[in-house]
Amino acid sequence: MNNFQFKNPTKILFGKGQIANINQELHPNQKILLLYGGGSIKKNGVYDQVMQALKGYNITEFSGIEANPRYETCLKAINLVKKESIEFILAVGGGSVIDAAKFIAAGVYIETDPWMILSDRAKVKQALPIGTVLTLPATASEMNGNAVITRDATKEKLAFGSPHVYPQFSVLDPETTLSLPARQIANGVVDAFSHVIEQYLTYPADAPLQDRMAEGILLTLIEEGPKTYADPKDYTSRANIMWACTMALNGVIGVGVPQDWATHRIGHELTALFEIDHARTLAIVMPGIFQHKSEQKKHKLLQYASRIWNITEGSEEEIIHQAVDKTIAFFESLGIKTKLKDYDVNPEAINEIAERLAKRNGEIGLGEHQDIHQQDVVKILEYAL
Amino acid sequence: MNNFQFKNPTKILFGKGQIANINQELHPNQKILLLYGGGSIKKNGVYDQVMQALKGYNITEFSGIEANPRYETCLKAINLVKKESIEFILAVGGGSVIDAAKFIAAGVYIETDPWMILSDRAKVKQALPIGTVLTLPATASEMNGNAVITRDATKEKLAFGSPHVYPQFSVLDPETTLSLPARQIANGVVDAFSHVIEQYLTYPADAPLQDRMAEGILLTLIEEGPKTYADPKDYTSRANIMWACTMALNGVIGVGVPQDWATHRIGHELTALFEIDHARTLAIVMPGIFQHKSEQKKHKLLQYASRIWNITEGSEEEIIHQAVDKTIAFFESLGIKTKLKDYDVNPEAINEIAERLAKRNGEIGLGEHQDIHQQDVVKILEYAL
């Protein structure tokens, strides 16, 4: 196991009816910004529950945060926060709204252009406190210090992380997710699956507990994912998916082990250029990573094949091949296509993506060995043709 | 899954050399109480490493905290803290020293007799901040808000918990454990094993991820425990045991599921009356709980038999019987005896123990169904004859 430092101070309020308890986490005198997206929370009753819990509180609203939240929109929110002397941001929605809240919370205090937090890793020294009411299980942004923001003008999608932007509290009420379209639930399951894979499927690091915990999340997603996809009204399976998505990226399974994240980095380019749902880009890229890196990742791929898919027969090569097929079949069973042509992406785009990444990273490659360079990205994406 | 609230703000600094970083977690102007036990930290170099890291800091020492820390000793430390206006307690040692630090930190502020925190669940509203340097993996006290204190005068061993006594930080350097006697390592493995069982082996609660994470810890303890017991110099297995012990009781696997804790409650009486090592009392009691409650716990016992011990052949009764045998054999393989006579406890003591527990609990029984009463305790302990 590698040395590590770990701290996750977010308080989780999990289960039916927990929105009613958010007033115990907030001071009545605080000026609160209520941040949300396109207004689905007004249709499914979540907005009403929040307002009921915060009756008499000082609330300013800002809506219109997009899926893949835009820098340009966040800038407007930062101006509003400054103008209204907001003291707390309550994000109600999915990972996009929560990511936006983090960027806004940090952007208020940054002395340079807030974009520098993303483009030049300008250090975040302070941020407004955040709370969240999660309505879409997927990103685990509700229990970590990371955010991804997209800039429309330059078609860039970049990430940042800071200990200052962990939510103080997050409400996870599975009932808020019962009205979600199947497409979004499928996206969430695949996003969380990919988060686990990025922290697990690298090389052995003598960390058997982290391995088993990662495998526990993968198995839960595989068992519960199809149940909740088939029957959105099944509270139990939705609760399990919600908690599995949070555990997939709250830091617990990633301590002391190497991490990959090449799938996400390549996927972000696909979203930025072609507006493909984040999770679907991961389903396109991940099988290619497994295949292009099958030698380096061999030990873990064999463990994954055996412990997750019960594949033990055949040569090592055949076992790995079957594991890739099983992974693709799992994504497809949730209605998530894995080929570029399914999303009308032209094969010529592959070179553009590889070039963009190479330009952004310079000499530093992607992946747990930092050895995925421009030509590797081309080969990885060619598996998705 | 049941509703739950979860928060664990402790920062973990894990790995070789991390003691040197504690000065980044402390203010040089704070008056620090350095709390430790019988002085083993002076022999194994941990004391020197701490003093080196805190050169120039304002430190007062208090040593002599016992295994099963005594109320009477803690009272002396509380007086010292008040007299010296101590602002931070740094506990260096195992669970006993850390538990004592928590009781002292809370006791300083309590308006009644501090014993009321334990005997009458007097509410802890405030506590001094705590940090820890863990030298003995076992209790997970380094990453939770619980403590157990023993009162010599009345031979009582009682627990309390409060969100105010989570350590702000804990250093887990596996190298500090390399000089531990095999007996203590064995105790730690069995203690952690029992912590997992108390949160896992109850009844199904539709929480498959918590189950798999609990199973991951059990499997890690079973695989790595004998390695580290056989070769104390194996850093890797010791690191894995250290992290598994922390994860066993930092709250993660216990969210949203029923919990038992009867093994611990009965075990505490054995320690209070006969000074048997805490972990050894658990090894005495646990098999009896499995057997006495085999009908109520049937579903989980079968899952435990299958997923932990690969037992699938035989009737349900036979499978459970084999799982009990495997559990006992595991404890015994670490040199931990599981019968009362191994510790020279007279069979007549069984009634005394059952009576003491009944007196303390009144009508409320032990276990996940609160249905383990005086006569059940007798039967459970009779399995250990």
From TrEMBL, chains A, B:
Keyword 4Fe-4S: no
UniProt record similarity statement: Belongs to the iron-containing alcohol dehydrogenase family.
MF (Gene Ontology): alcohol dehydrogenase (NADP+) activity; butanol dehydrogenase (NAD+) activity; metal ion binding; methylglyoxal reductase (NADPH) (acetol producing) activity
The Fe-containing alcohol dehydrogenase-like C-terminal domain, residue ranges: 186-384
PROSITE patterns hit by this protein: ADH_IRON_1, ADH_IRON_2
Organism: Anditalea andensis
Membrane-spanning intervals of the chain: none
CDD domains: BDH (cd08187)
Superkingdom per UniProt: Bacteria
InterPro entries, A to Z: ADH_Fe/GldA, ADH_Fe_C, ADH_Fe_CS, BDH-like
Keywords for this protein: Oxidoreductase
Pfam family, one: Fe-ADH
Record-level GO cellular component terms: cytosol
Domain Alcohol dehydrogenase iron-type/glycerol dehydrogenase GldA: 9-174
UniProt name for this protein: Aldehyde reductase
